[in-house]
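Open question from group meeting: does this chain pack into something compact, or does most of it stay loose? Before anyone orders reagents, we agreed to write out a predicted structure and look at it together. Recording both the input and the output here so the notebook holds the full record.
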Amino acid sequence: MIMMDIIFVAFTGIALESWRLFVEMAPYLFLGFVMAGLLHVYIPERQIMKYLGSSAGKVRSALHATLLGIPIPLCSCGVVPTALSLQKKGATKGATLSFLISTPETGVDSIAITYALLDPIMTVFRPLATLITALSAGIAENFLDHEEPHVPEKKAADKKNLLMMQPLAACSDASCSCQPASMGTDTSGKASFMGGIRYAFVELLGDISKWLVVGIVLAGIISYAVPYELVSSYLGGGIASMLFMLVVGIPLYICATSSTPLAAALIAKGMSPGTAFVFLLAGPATNAATITMVAKFLGKRSAALYLATIAVCSLGFGLLLDLIYFRIGVEASSVVGSASEILPEPVKVIFALILIPFIVHGISKKHCRQ
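Structure tokens returned:
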């Protein structure tokens, strides 16, 4: 009986902590998905290859691919077929590599959640670090690559929106959407807008809903059960703790959105912001399946450059972020989630209740596919 009481109390505590985190992030998650849907509909593909091909130059093609990838919310597995379709259309290898890094590391949804669950410093630092990491890899690849530029394929299917192209053969992870998004024949503004909303709240949210719930529950467990002293003692900062998070993050499948509540919970328990940032940068950008796909389609040298750039930049930016917090005298654990306090609690609860049916639908849809 005592054991049952302990289990019930622990379950209740974890559930309450998980719900609290979800409520805090719900309005910003909602806003992020709306923006993602609009980006999905209104980014014109006809202009993309003009800026990503070899004619754009070794530096500019990588820069354009990086800037294109930052706001797009695709996971590290789902981005592979999209990036490969870019290369088939004539994008340079460096541009492809930049897109592979910048897209999963951040997105409009994860930036919004970073603001809600972490703080403004991390919200600005995250996309900036992503830009530099992706740009560094892309420029290095373009200057090291001496192969002839790939000739774009001329196929009718290539006219589809790049963000909707996810070939079945290229996606081996069950957490990724392996079905191309449906395209309506009505090109009116209202139809386009509704198509973007459907993409955001049905397809995209459906793709990440399972892992979003897992991330929130794990964050709830950390918030409820992990002692502050344990995290602060072993992951309180320094190169050793960052190397540990790098080793954990690189092979792990986790998207930028679901990694954020985990990082917030760990920072609140005493992890240094720099150590958490290593996980936020390296975790979403890579996983075992993605690394395999990059090595297969871009080559082993490109895969090695891809991993090395992410590892070096993650550690470098982690150390820099800890230094920034130290210099300005901010205790990260004391400001985690402070940005979300600008909204009244009832408003956040309403957004949470709106999102729940979409998340449940997304999980059930994934279960049916498997």
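Observations to bring back to the group:
The CA atoms of residues 134 and 189 lie 33 Å apart.
Residues 2-42 form the longest helix (41 residues).
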